[in-house]
Request: fold
Amino acid sequence: MKFLLEVDVDDTVSAEDTTRELGRVLRYWAGNLRYYALEPGAGETVLDSAHREVGRWTIVGS
Reply:
């Protein structure tokens, strides 16, 4: 199986803000994966710190 994480990055903000936001997204979802069955078809919308949709993670077959 593959774990795919896709996050749209706002290229109008500073590199520092982008790094901070991506780090937050990764920490949040790493902590929450235990609540999901990690099997093909599983997935969820990814939100930024302002609760805007910025991407999605999914589990797909190999």
